[in-house]
Amino acid sequence: MLDEIFSPQFVQLSLPPILIGALAAIACALPGNFLVLRRQALIGDAISHVVLPGIVVAFLLTGRVSTWPMMIGATVAALVAAILIEAIRRVGRMEPGAAMGVVFTALFAFGVLLLEQSGSRNVHLDVEHALYGNLESLIWLDANGWGSLFDARALAGLPPELPRLAIVAALIATATALFWRPLAISTFDESYAQSIGLPTRLIAFALVAAAAVAAVAAFEAVGSIIVIAMFVCPPAAARLMTDRLGAQVAWSLLFAVISAVAGYVIAGYGPLWFGLPDAVSAAGMIATISGVILAAACLWGPRRLGAGSAA
Amino acid sequence: MTATATAREGVFASDPDSRPGPLVVSGLTVSYGRAPALIGVDLAIAPGSMTAIVGPNGAGKSTLLKAVIGVAPVVAGDIRVFGETLARVRDRVAYVPQRASVDWDFPARVIDVVTMGLYRELGPFGFVRRRHREAAMAHLDRVGMADFAQRQIGQLSGGQQQRVFLARALAQKADLYLLDEPLAGVDAATERAVVAVLHGLRAEGACIVAVHHDLATLRDYFDHVALINRRLVAQGPTAETLTAENLQRTYGGLLAGTQIGRIEIAYAARER
Questions:
Q1: pLDDT (tens digit, 9 = 90+) per residue, B130-160?
Q2: Does A116 touch chain B (CB under 8 A)?
Q3: Selecting from 3.30.70.100, 1.10.3470.10, 1.10.1660.10, 3.30.750.24, what CATH number does the domain A2-300 have?
Protein backbone atom coordinates (compact mmCIF):
# COMPACT_ATOMS: atom_id res chain seq x y z
CA MET A 1 0.00 0.00 0.00
CA LEU A 2 2.78 2.44 0.97
CA ASP A 3 4.60 1.63 -2.25
CA GLU A 4 1.50 2.60 -4.13
CA ILE A 5 1.28 5.97 -2.40
CA PHE A 6 4.85 6.81 -3.37
CA SER A 7 4.49 5.70 -6.96
CA PRO A 8 4.08 8.32 -9.69
CA GLN A 9 0.88 6.55 -10.77
CA PHE A 10 -0.73 7.32 -7.44
CA VAL A 11 -0.16 11.07 -7.85
CA GLN A 12 -1.27 10.83 -11.47
CA LEU A 13 -4.35 8.67 -11.11
CA SER A 14 -5.51 8.57 -7.50
CA LEU A 15 -4.51 11.76 -5.72
CA PRO A 16 -6.66 14.19 -7.79
CA PRO A 17 -9.88 12.16 -7.50
CA ILE A 18 -9.32 11.59 -3.78
CA LEU A 19 -8.78 15.31 -3.18
CA ILE A 20 -11.73 16.25 -5.36
CA GLY A 21 -13.94 13.75 -3.59
CA ALA A 22 -12.84 15.02 -0.18
CA LEU A 23 -13.36 18.68 -1.12
CA ALA A 24 -16.80 17.94 -2.58
CA ALA A 25 -17.70 16.05 0.57
CA ILE A 26 -16.56 18.95 2.78
CA ALA A 27 -18.38 21.56 0.68
CA CYS A 28 -21.65 19.61 0.96
CA ALA A 29 -21.33 18.43 4.58
CA LEU A 30 -20.77 21.95 5.96
CA PRO A 31 -24.14 23.45 4.95
CA GLY A 32 -25.61 19.96 5.39
CA ASN A 33 -25.16 20.26 9.17
CA PHE A 34 -27.48 23.25 9.35
CA LEU A 35 -29.93 21.88 6.78
CA VAL A 36 -30.28 18.66 8.78
CA LEU A 37 -30.83 20.61 12.02
CA ARG A 38 -33.45 22.73 10.25
CA ARG A 39 -35.11 19.55 8.95
CA GLN A 40 -34.40 20.65 5.40
CA ALA A 41 -32.04 17.81 4.52
CA LEU A 42 -34.12 17.02 1.47
CA ILE A 43 -33.08 20.28 -0.13
CA GLY A 44 -29.81 18.68 -1.26
CA ASP A 45 -31.86 16.13 -3.13
CA ALA A 46 -34.06 18.87 -4.56
CA ILE A 47 -31.11 20.93 -5.76
CA SER A 48 -29.36 18.04 -7.47
CA HIS A 49 -32.50 17.30 -9.49
CA VAL A 50 -33.07 20.92 -10.39
CA VAL A 51 -29.58 21.18 -11.82
CA LEU A 52 -30.74 19.33 -14.96
CA PRO A 53 -33.05 22.05 -16.42
CA GLY A 54 -30.39 24.62 -15.53
CA ILE A 55 -27.75 22.81 -17.52
CA VAL A 56 -30.07 22.31 -20.50
CA VAL A 57 -31.11 25.96 -20.57
CA ALA A 58 -27.46 27.01 -20.36
CA PHE A 59 -26.70 24.71 -23.29
CA LEU A 60 -29.62 26.12 -25.30
CA LEU A 61 -28.49 29.68 -24.69
CA THR A 62 -24.81 29.14 -25.44
CA GLY A 63 -25.10 26.30 -27.92
CA ARG A 64 -22.13 24.39 -26.57
CA VAL A 65 -21.09 22.12 -23.75
CA SER A 66 -18.76 24.19 -21.63
CA THR A 67 -18.29 24.25 -17.92
CA TRP A 68 -18.87 27.83 -16.81
CA PRO A 69 -22.19 28.54 -18.56
CA MET A 70 -23.49 25.21 -17.27
CA MET A 71 -22.31 25.92 -13.74
CA ILE A 72 -24.03 29.30 -13.86
CA GLY A 73 -27.19 27.80 -15.35
CA ALA A 74 -27.27 25.11 -12.69
CA THR A 75 -26.70 27.61 -9.89
CA VAL A 76 -29.45 29.89 -11.19
CA ALA A 77 -31.82 26.92 -11.45
CA ALA A 78 -30.97 25.88 -7.90
CA LEU A 79 -31.63 29.39 -6.60
CA VAL A 80 -34.91 29.60 -8.54
CA ALA A 81 -35.89 26.29 -6.96
CA ALA A 82 -34.96 27.58 -3.50
CA ILE A 83 -37.11 30.68 -4.03
CA LEU A 84 -40.00 28.58 -5.37
CA ILE A 85 -39.81 26.23 -2.38
CA GLU A 86 -39.89 29.17 0.03
CA ALA A 87 -42.77 30.78 -1.90
CA ILE A 88 -44.87 27.62 -1.99
CA ARG A 89 -44.20 27.05 1.69
CA ARG A 90 -45.34 30.55 2.63
CA VAL A 91 -48.13 31.21 0.14
CA GLY A 92 -49.51 27.68 -0.02
CA ARG A 93 -48.83 27.10 3.70
CA MET A 94 -47.32 23.77 2.79
CA GLU A 95 -45.10 21.57 4.87
CA PRO A 96 -41.46 22.10 3.71
CA GLY A 97 -40.94 18.48 2.62
CA ALA A 98 -43.99 18.63 0.38
CA ALA A 99 -42.96 21.99 -1.08
CA MET A 100 -39.51 20.61 -1.94
CA GLY A 101 -41.01 17.46 -3.42
CA VAL A 102 -43.32 19.43 -5.69
CA VAL A 103 -40.65 21.85 -6.88
CA PHE A 104 -37.86 19.42 -7.63
CA THR A 105 -40.03 16.86 -9.37
CA ALA A 106 -41.69 19.52 -11.53
CA LEU A 107 -38.41 21.21 -12.47
CA PHE A 108 -36.67 17.89 -13.14
CA ALA A 109 -39.56 16.85 -15.39
CA PHE A 110 -39.34 20.20 -17.14
CA GLY A 111 -35.62 19.58 -17.66
CA VAL A 112 -36.33 16.19 -19.23
CA LEU A 113 -38.88 17.75 -21.63
CA LEU A 114 -36.46 20.51 -22.58
CA LEU A 115 -33.73 17.96 -23.18
CA GLU A 116 -35.99 15.95 -25.51
CA GLN A 117 -37.45 18.85 -27.43
CA SER A 118 -34.32 20.91 -27.94
CA GLY A 119 -32.24 18.26 -29.64
CA SER A 120 -29.63 18.68 -26.97
CA ARG A 121 -30.07 15.02 -26.07
CA ASN A 122 -27.57 14.28 -28.80
CA VAL A 123 -25.06 16.04 -26.66
CA HIS A 124 -23.35 14.07 -23.98
CA LEU A 125 -25.67 14.70 -21.04
CA ASP A 126 -26.53 11.21 -20.01
CA VAL A 127 -28.18 10.11 -16.79
CA GLU A 128 -25.42 7.77 -15.71
CA HIS A 129 -22.90 10.60 -15.77
CA ALA A 130 -25.22 12.75 -13.69
CA LEU A 131 -25.67 10.06 -11.07
CA TYR A 132 -22.15 8.76 -10.64
CA GLY A 133 -20.07 11.65 -11.92
CA ASN A 134 -16.72 10.80 -13.44
CA LEU A 135 -14.43 10.79 -10.45
CA GLU A 136 -12.14 8.09 -11.87
CA SER A 137 -11.49 10.10 -15.02
CA LEU A 138 -10.23 13.17 -13.18
CA ILE A 139 -6.60 12.32 -13.62
CA TRP A 140 -3.45 14.44 -13.68
CA LEU A 141 -1.43 13.36 -16.68
CA ASP A 142 1.20 16.06 -16.20
CA ALA A 143 2.29 14.61 -12.88
CA ASN A 144 5.20 12.24 -12.51
CA GLY A 145 5.40 11.94 -8.75
CA TRP A 146 4.88 13.95 -5.56
CA GLY A 147 7.43 16.48 -6.80
CA SER A 148 4.92 17.67 -9.40
CA LEU A 149 3.01 19.38 -6.61
CA PHE A 150 5.77 22.02 -6.66
CA ASP A 151 6.07 22.21 -10.43
CA ALA A 152 4.09 25.13 -11.82
CA ARG A 153 3.90 23.62 -15.29
CA ALA A 154 2.58 20.33 -14.05
CA LEU A 155 0.12 22.08 -11.71
CA ALA A 156 -1.38 23.89 -14.70
CA GLY A 157 -2.47 20.49 -15.95
CA LEU A 158 -4.48 19.64 -12.86
CA PRO A 159 -8.08 18.72 -13.57
CA PRO A 160 -9.96 22.06 -13.32
CA GLU A 161 -12.50 20.50 -10.95
CA LEU A 162 -9.84 20.46 -8.24
CA PRO A 163 -9.17 24.21 -7.92
CA ARG A 164 -12.87 24.91 -8.52
CA LEU A 165 -13.98 22.71 -5.64
CA ALA A 166 -11.14 23.99 -3.47
CA ILE A 167 -12.39 27.55 -3.96
CA VAL A 168 -16.01 26.61 -3.30
CA ALA A 169 -15.11 24.61 -0.17
CA ALA A 170 -12.94 27.48 1.10
CA LEU A 171 -15.69 30.05 0.47
CA ILE A 172 -18.31 27.96 2.24
CA ALA A 173 -15.99 27.27 5.17
CA THR A 174 -15.18 30.98 5.51
CA ALA A 175 -18.83 32.00 5.35
CA THR A 176 -19.78 29.35 7.92
CA ALA A 177 -17.07 30.56 10.30
CA LEU A 178 -17.91 34.24 9.83
CA PHE A 179 -21.66 33.87 10.30
CA TRP A 180 -21.48 31.03 12.80
CA ARG A 181 -23.31 32.76 15.62
CA PRO A 182 -26.28 34.18 13.66
CA LEU A 183 -26.54 30.88 11.79
CA ALA A 184 -26.58 28.86 15.02
CA ILE A 185 -29.10 31.11 16.79
CA SER A 186 -31.51 31.28 13.88
CA THR A 187 -31.24 27.53 13.29
CA PHE A 188 -32.09 26.78 16.92
CA ASP A 189 -34.80 29.38 17.52
CA GLU A 190 -36.01 31.39 14.55
CA SER A 191 -38.55 33.60 16.32
CA TYR A 192 -36.03 34.49 19.03
CA ALA A 193 -33.47 35.27 16.34
CA GLN A 194 -35.96 37.64 14.75
CA SER A 195 -36.66 39.27 18.10
CA ILE A 196 -32.99 40.21 18.52
CA GLY A 197 -32.93 41.65 15.01
CA LEU A 198 -31.26 38.90 12.99
CA PRO A 199 -32.29 38.80 9.32
CA THR A 200 -33.54 35.22 9.54
CA ARG A 201 -35.00 35.02 6.04
CA LEU A 202 -31.77 36.25 4.52
CA ILE A 203 -29.81 33.74 6.62
CA ALA A 204 -32.11 30.90 5.56
CA PHE A 205 -31.78 31.89 1.93
CA ALA A 206 -28.00 32.30 2.11
CA LEU A 207 -27.74 28.81 3.59
CA VAL A 208 -29.74 27.31 0.73
CA ALA A 209 -27.72 29.34 -1.76
CA ALA A 210 -24.46 28.03 -0.26
CA ALA A 211 -25.86 24.50 -0.47
CA ALA A 212 -26.80 25.14 -4.10
CA VAL A 213 -23.31 26.36 -5.02
CA ALA A 214 -21.73 23.39 -3.23
CA ALA A 215 -24.11 20.96 -4.92
CA VAL A 216 -23.53 22.37 -8.39
CA ALA A 217 -19.75 22.47 -8.04
CA ALA A 218 -19.66 18.94 -6.65
CA PHE A 219 -22.31 17.57 -8.97
CA GLU A 220 -20.27 17.96 -12.11
CA ALA A 221 -17.20 16.29 -10.67
CA VAL A 222 -18.61 13.59 -8.45
CA GLY A 223 -22.27 13.12 -9.44
CA SER A 224 -25.47 13.58 -7.51
CA ILE A 225 -25.24 10.41 -5.41
CA ILE A 226 -22.31 11.78 -3.44
CA VAL A 227 -23.90 15.22 -3.21
CA ILE A 228 -27.11 13.88 -1.69
CA ALA A 229 -25.26 11.50 0.63
CA MET A 230 -22.82 14.16 1.86
CA PHE A 231 -25.57 16.66 2.68
CA VAL A 232 -27.16 14.17 5.06
CA CYS A 233 -24.99 11.26 6.18
CA PRO A 234 -21.91 12.93 7.77
CA PRO A 235 -23.97 15.57 9.67
CA ALA A 236 -26.51 13.01 10.84
CA ALA A 237 -23.75 10.65 12.01
CA ALA A 238 -21.91 13.56 13.66
CA ARG A 239 -25.02 14.54 15.62
CA LEU A 240 -24.88 11.12 17.28
CA MET A 241 -21.29 11.72 18.41
CA THR A 242 -21.65 14.96 20.36
CA ASP A 243 -24.03 17.45 21.94
CA ARG A 244 -22.18 20.55 20.79
CA LEU A 245 -22.72 22.25 17.49
CA GLY A 246 -19.06 23.06 16.89
CA ALA A 247 -18.01 19.51 17.64
CA GLN A 248 -20.80 18.20 15.44
CA VAL A 249 -19.55 20.19 12.46
CA ALA A 250 -15.96 18.99 13.12
CA TRP A 251 -17.09 15.35 13.30
CA SER A 252 -19.12 15.75 10.12
CA LEU A 253 -16.09 17.05 8.23
CA LEU A 254 -14.01 14.15 9.52
CA PHE A 255 -16.68 11.65 8.44
CA ALA A 256 -16.99 13.35 5.05
CA VAL A 257 -13.24 13.12 4.42
CA ILE A 258 -13.07 9.51 5.66
CA SER A 259 -15.96 8.58 3.35
CA ALA A 260 -14.29 10.20 0.35
CA VAL A 261 -10.82 8.77 0.91
CA ALA A 262 -11.85 5.32 2.10
CA GLY A 263 -14.60 5.10 -0.52
CA TYR A 264 -12.22 5.90 -3.34
CA VAL A 265 -9.48 3.58 -2.13
CA ILE A 266 -11.83 0.67 -1.47
CA ALA A 267 -13.58 1.15 -4.83
CA GLY A 268 -10.28 1.26 -6.70
CA TYR A 269 -8.21 -1.30 -4.83
CA GLY A 270 -10.73 -3.31 -2.82
CA PRO A 271 -11.82 -5.68 -5.60
CA LEU A 272 -8.15 -6.41 -6.36
CA TRP A 273 -7.55 -7.39 -2.73
CA PHE A 274 -10.31 -9.96 -3.14
CA GLY A 275 -8.89 -11.14 -6.45
CA LEU A 276 -11.67 -9.55 -8.50
CA PRO A 277 -10.63 -8.02 -11.80
CA ASP A 278 -12.59 -4.73 -11.94
CA ALA A 279 -12.82 -1.66 -9.75
CA VAL A 280 -16.29 -0.58 -8.63
CA SER A 281 -17.83 2.90 -8.91
CA ALA A 282 -15.99 5.30 -6.59
CA ALA A 283 -19.04 7.55 -6.25
CA GLY A 284 -21.20 4.62 -5.23
CA MET A 285 -18.60 3.38 -2.76
CA ILE A 286 -18.09 6.84 -1.19
CA ALA A 287 -21.83 7.23 -0.64
CA THR A 288 -22.00 3.69 0.72
CA ILE A 289 -19.18 4.33 3.19
CA SER A 290 -20.95 7.46 4.46
CA GLY A 291 -24.06 5.35 4.97
CA VAL A 292 -22.05 2.69 6.82
CA ILE A 293 -20.58 5.40 9.09
CA LEU A 294 -24.10 6.66 9.81
CA ALA A 295 -25.28 3.14 10.61
CA ALA A 296 -22.31 2.63 12.95
CA ALA A 297 -23.05 5.95 14.68
CA CYS A 298 -26.69 4.88 15.11
CA LEU A 299 -25.54 1.67 16.78
CA TRP A 300 -22.62 2.94 18.87
CA GLY A 301 -22.66 6.75 18.82
CA PRO A 302 -22.41 8.12 22.36
CA ARG A 303 -25.26 10.57 21.83
CA ARG A 304 -27.75 8.45 19.95
CA LEU A 305 -31.35 8.75 21.13
CA GLY A 306 -31.75 7.14 24.51
CA ALA A 307 -28.03 7.15 25.23
CA GLY A 308 -27.96 10.84 26.08
CA SER A 309 -30.22 10.70 29.12
CA ALA A 310 -28.05 8.10 30.78
CA ALA A 311 -25.01 10.36 30.63
CA MET B 1 -64.77 51.45 32.06
CA THR B 2 -62.09 49.77 30.01
CA ALA B 3 -62.53 51.88 26.93
CA THR B 4 -62.03 55.12 28.83
CA ALA B 5 -59.18 53.65 30.85
CA THR B 6 -57.44 52.64 27.63
CA ALA B 7 -57.89 56.02 26.11
CA ARG B 8 -56.64 57.79 29.22
CA GLU B 9 -53.57 55.57 29.51
CA GLY B 10 -52.93 55.89 25.81
CA VAL B 11 -52.93 59.67 26.03
CA PHE B 12 -50.81 59.52 29.13
CA ALA B 13 -48.32 57.29 27.37
CA SER B 14 -47.89 59.55 24.38
CA ASP B 15 -47.82 62.73 26.48
CA PRO B 16 -44.52 64.43 25.56
CA ASP B 17 -44.06 65.68 29.11
CA SER B 18 -43.95 62.22 30.65
CA ARG B 19 -41.77 59.21 29.88
CA PRO B 20 -43.28 57.24 27.04
CA GLY B 21 -45.04 54.01 28.10
CA PRO B 22 -43.15 50.75 27.65
CA LEU B 23 -45.63 49.46 25.11
CA VAL B 24 -48.48 51.23 23.35
CA VAL B 25 -50.41 49.36 20.69
CA SER B 26 -53.07 51.18 18.71
CA GLY B 27 -55.50 49.82 16.16
CA LEU B 28 -53.42 46.69 15.64
CA THR B 29 -54.76 44.28 13.02
CA VAL B 30 -52.74 41.18 12.19
CA SER B 31 -53.57 38.62 9.53
CA TYR B 32 -51.80 35.46 8.40
CA GLY B 33 -54.12 35.05 5.45
CA ARG B 34 -57.87 34.71 5.60
CA ALA B 35 -59.42 35.63 8.95
CA PRO B 36 -57.47 38.24 10.90
CA ALA B 37 -55.77 36.92 14.04
CA LEU B 38 -56.14 40.30 15.77
CA ILE B 39 -58.57 43.10 14.94
CA GLY B 40 -58.09 46.72 15.96
CA VAL B 41 -56.40 46.03 19.28
CA ASP B 42 -55.57 49.04 21.48
CA LEU B 43 -53.32 48.31 24.41
CA ALA B 44 -51.27 50.47 26.74
CA ILE B 45 -48.93 48.76 29.15
CA ALA B 46 -48.24 50.76 32.30
CA PRO B 47 -44.60 51.35 33.30
CA GLY B 48 -43.31 48.92 35.90
CA SER B 49 -46.35 46.68 35.60
CA MET B 50 -46.69 42.96 35.14
CA THR B 51 -49.46 42.28 32.68
CA ALA B 52 -51.06 38.97 31.75
CA ILE B 53 -52.43 38.51 28.25
CA VAL B 54 -55.44 36.23 28.71
CA GLY B 55 -57.87 34.70 26.27
CA PRO B 56 -59.06 31.44 24.76
CA ASN B 57 -57.03 29.31 22.34
CA GLY B 58 -56.66 31.05 19.01
CA ALA B 59 -57.47 34.45 20.54
CA GLY B 60 -54.25 35.92 19.17
CA LYS B 61 -52.28 36.09 22.44
CA SER B 62 -49.01 34.80 20.97
CA THR B 63 -49.68 36.77 17.81
CA LEU B 64 -49.86 39.97 19.85
CA LEU B 65 -46.36 39.38 21.24
CA LYS B 66 -45.07 38.36 17.81
CA ALA B 67 -46.47 41.56 16.34
CA VAL B 68 -44.58 43.57 18.95
CA ILE B 69 -41.25 41.90 18.10
CA GLY B 70 -41.97 42.35 14.40
CA VAL B 71 -42.56 38.74 13.41
CA ALA B 72 -46.30 38.65 12.78
CA PRO B 73 -47.73 40.22 9.60
CA VAL B 74 -49.18 43.55 10.77
CA VAL B 75 -51.93 44.71 8.41
CA ALA B 76 -52.80 47.95 10.18
CA GLY B 77 -52.08 49.82 13.37
CA ASP B 78 -49.13 51.17 15.23
CA ILE B 79 -46.84 49.70 17.87
CA ARG B 80 -44.63 51.92 20.01
CA VAL B 81 -42.05 50.55 22.40
CA PHE B 82 -40.82 53.20 24.81
CA GLY B 83 -42.29 55.69 22.36
CA GLU B 84 -40.19 54.43 19.44
CA THR B 85 -40.41 51.88 16.69
CA LEU B 86 -39.00 48.52 17.72
CA ALA B 87 -35.87 48.78 15.58
CA ARG B 88 -34.62 51.74 17.62
CA VAL B 89 -35.13 50.15 21.02
CA ARG B 90 -34.47 46.49 20.27
CA ASP B 91 -31.80 46.35 22.98
CA ARG B 92 -34.44 47.14 25.61
CA VAL B 93 -36.78 44.29 24.67
CA ALA B 94 -36.38 40.59 25.47
CA TYR B 95 -38.66 37.94 24.03
CA VAL B 96 -39.22 34.45 25.40
CA PRO B 97 -40.89 32.22 22.80
CA GLN B 98 -43.07 29.26 23.64
CA ARG B 99 -40.95 26.37 24.82
CA ALA B 100 -42.55 24.04 22.27
CA SER B 101 -41.53 26.31 19.38
CA VAL B 102 -37.98 24.94 19.21
CA ASP B 103 -36.38 21.54 18.74
CA TRP B 104 -34.75 20.73 22.07
CA ASP B 105 -32.72 17.98 20.42
CA PHE B 106 -30.52 20.75 19.00
CA PRO B 107 -26.82 20.15 19.82
CA ALA B 108 -26.34 22.81 22.48
CA ARG B 109 -25.69 22.91 26.19
CA VAL B 110 -27.62 25.04 28.64
CA ILE B 111 -24.80 27.58 28.81
CA ASP B 112 -24.75 27.87 24.99
CA VAL B 113 -28.43 28.84 24.93
CA VAL B 114 -28.00 31.46 27.66
CA THR B 115 -25.00 32.89 25.79
CA MET B 116 -27.30 33.49 22.81
CA GLY B 117 -28.88 36.18 24.99
CA LEU B 118 -25.61 38.10 24.81
CA TYR B 119 -25.82 38.42 21.03
CA ARG B 120 -26.70 42.12 21.03
CA GLU B 121 -23.63 42.67 23.19
CA LEU B 122 -21.27 40.30 21.37
CA GLY B 123 -22.38 40.86 17.81
CA PRO B 124 -21.71 38.23 15.16
CA PHE B 125 -17.94 38.18 15.65
CA GLY B 126 -17.38 39.10 19.31
CA PHE B 127 -15.31 36.68 21.33
CA VAL B 128 -17.01 35.09 24.33
CA ARG B 129 -14.75 36.18 27.19
CA ARG B 130 -14.63 35.14 30.77
CA ARG B 131 -16.89 37.96 31.92
CA HIS B 132 -19.50 36.87 29.36
CA ARG B 133 -19.38 33.32 30.66
CA GLU B 134 -19.63 34.58 34.22
CA ALA B 135 -22.61 36.77 33.33
CA ALA B 136 -24.33 33.82 31.68
CA MET B 137 -23.71 31.72 34.79
CA ALA B 138 -25.12 34.46 37.03
CA HIS B 139 -28.33 34.56 34.97
CA LEU B 140 -28.57 30.77 35.14
CA ASP B 141 -28.09 30.98 38.88
CA ARG B 142 -30.95 33.46 39.15
CA VAL B 143 -33.35 30.91 37.67
CA GLY B 144 -31.85 28.12 39.78
CA MET B 145 -30.20 26.30 36.87
CA ALA B 146 -26.49 26.96 37.48
CA ASP B 147 -25.83 23.28 38.19
CA PHE B 148 -27.13 22.35 34.76
CA ALA B 149 -24.88 24.65 32.71
CA GLN B 150 -23.07 21.82 30.93
CA ARG B 151 -26.16 19.68 30.29
CA GLN B 152 -27.47 19.07 26.81
CA ILE B 153 -30.74 20.99 26.59
CA GLY B 154 -32.69 17.92 25.45
CA GLN B 155 -31.96 16.23 28.77
CA LEU B 156 -33.84 18.86 30.77
CA SER B 157 -37.43 18.64 31.95
CA GLY B 158 -39.95 21.04 30.42
CA GLY B 159 -39.78 23.31 33.43
CA GLN B 160 -35.99 23.39 33.36
CA GLN B 161 -36.07 24.26 29.67
CA GLN B 162 -38.45 27.11 30.44
CA ARG B 163 -36.03 28.45 33.06
CA VAL B 164 -33.16 28.29 30.55
CA PHE B 165 -35.24 30.37 28.15
CA LEU B 166 -35.89 32.87 30.93
CA ALA B 167 -32.15 33.02 31.73
CA ARG B 168 -31.43 33.76 28.08
CA ALA B 169 -33.86 36.68 28.23
CA LEU B 170 -32.26 37.91 31.47
CA ALA B 171 -28.91 38.02 29.67
CA GLN B 172 -30.37 40.75 27.45
CA LYS B 173 -30.84 43.06 30.48
CA ALA B 174 -34.01 44.42 28.90
CA ASP B 175 -36.56 46.91 30.22
CA LEU B 176 -39.52 45.16 28.62
CA TYR B 177 -39.91 41.38 28.80
CA LEU B 178 -42.38 39.62 26.53
CA LEU B 179 -43.01 36.02 27.51
CA ASP B 180 -45.17 33.54 25.62
CA GLU B 181 -46.76 31.08 28.08
CA PRO B 182 -43.82 30.98 30.52
CA LEU B 183 -45.85 28.91 32.98
CA ALA B 184 -47.50 26.46 30.58
CA GLY B 185 -46.94 22.85 31.60
CA VAL B 186 -44.16 23.54 34.09
CA ASP B 187 -43.62 21.90 37.48
CA ALA B 188 -44.41 23.71 40.72
CA ALA B 189 -40.74 24.48 41.48
CA THR B 190 -40.30 26.11 38.09
CA GLU B 191 -43.51 28.09 38.49
CA ARG B 192 -42.25 29.47 41.81
CA ALA B 193 -38.81 30.23 40.36
CA VAL B 194 -40.15 31.94 37.24
CA VAL B 195 -42.69 34.03 39.15
CA ALA B 196 -40.04 35.05 41.70
CA VAL B 197 -37.69 36.16 38.93
CA LEU B 198 -40.44 38.08 37.12
CA HIS B 199 -41.50 39.82 40.34
CA GLY B 200 -37.83 40.62 40.97
CA LEU B 201 -37.54 42.18 37.52
CA ARG B 202 -40.67 44.23 38.17
CA ALA B 203 -39.17 45.43 41.46
CA GLU B 204 -36.08 46.51 39.52
CA GLY B 205 -38.32 48.66 37.33
CA ALA B 206 -38.72 46.41 34.31
CA CYS B 207 -42.06 45.88 32.66
CA ILE B 208 -43.39 42.37 32.03
CA VAL B 209 -46.01 41.18 29.59
CA ALA B 210 -46.78 37.46 29.61
CA VAL B 211 -49.30 35.24 27.92
CA HIS B 212 -50.96 33.35 30.74
CA HIS B 213 -53.63 30.67 30.70
CA ASP B 214 -54.29 29.83 34.33
CA LEU B 215 -57.12 32.00 35.58
CA ALA B 216 -56.73 30.62 39.11
CA THR B 217 -53.25 32.13 39.62
CA LEU B 218 -53.82 35.31 37.66
CA ARG B 219 -54.57 37.59 40.60
CA ASP B 220 -51.65 36.31 42.63
CA TYR B 221 -49.05 36.77 39.92
CA PHE B 222 -50.12 39.71 37.77
CA ASP B 223 -51.06 43.27 38.71
CA HIS B 224 -52.56 44.03 35.30
CA VAL B 225 -54.47 41.96 32.79
CA ALA B 226 -55.50 42.34 29.17
CA LEU B 227 -58.35 40.09 28.06
CA ILE B 228 -58.36 39.44 24.35
CA ASN B 229 -60.28 37.38 21.88
CA ARG B 230 -59.09 38.66 18.53
CA ARG B 231 -60.27 42.03 19.79
CA LEU B 232 -59.39 43.63 23.08
CA VAL B 233 -62.17 42.82 25.53
CA ALA B 234 -60.87 44.64 28.59
CA GLN B 235 -57.65 45.79 30.18
CA GLY B 236 -56.60 47.32 33.47
CA PRO B 237 -55.61 46.38 37.00
CA THR B 238 -56.33 42.71 37.63
CA ALA B 239 -58.68 43.20 40.56
CA GLU B 240 -61.03 45.46 38.62
CA THR B 241 -60.73 43.89 35.20
CA LEU B 242 -61.08 40.21 36.00
CA THR B 243 -64.83 40.22 36.43
CA ALA B 244 -67.28 37.46 35.58
CA GLU B 245 -68.80 39.67 32.91
CA ASN B 246 -65.46 40.37 31.21
CA LEU B 247 -64.45 36.70 31.37
CA GLN B 248 -67.77 35.73 29.84
CA ARG B 249 -67.23 38.25 27.06
CA THR B 250 -63.70 36.96 26.47
CA TYR B 251 -64.41 33.27 26.49
CA GLY B 252 -68.00 33.36 25.25
CA GLY B 253 -69.55 29.94 25.53
CA LEU B 254 -66.12 28.33 25.88
CA LEU B 255 -65.93 28.92 29.60
CA ALA B 256 -69.00 27.54 31.31
CA GLY B 257 -70.71 29.81 33.78
CA THR B 258 -70.04 27.34 36.57
CA GLN B 259 -66.30 27.55 35.91
CA ILE B 260 -66.32 31.32 36.20
CA GLY B 261 -68.44 30.97 39.32
CA ARG B 262 -65.92 28.60 40.83
CA ILE B 263 -63.03 30.94 40.11
CA GLU B 264 -64.97 33.81 41.69
CA ILE B 265 -65.71 31.74 44.77
CA ALA B 266 -62.03 30.79 45.01
CA TYR B 267 -61.00 34.44 44.83
CA ALA B 268 -63.63 35.51 47.29
CA ALA B 269 -62.50 32.80 49.72
CA ARG B 270 -58.88 33.89 49.43
CA GLU B 271 -59.67 37.55 49.93
CA ARG B 272 -61.64 36.86 53.09
A1: 999 999 999 999 999 999 999 999 999 999 9
A2: no
A3: 1.10.3470.10
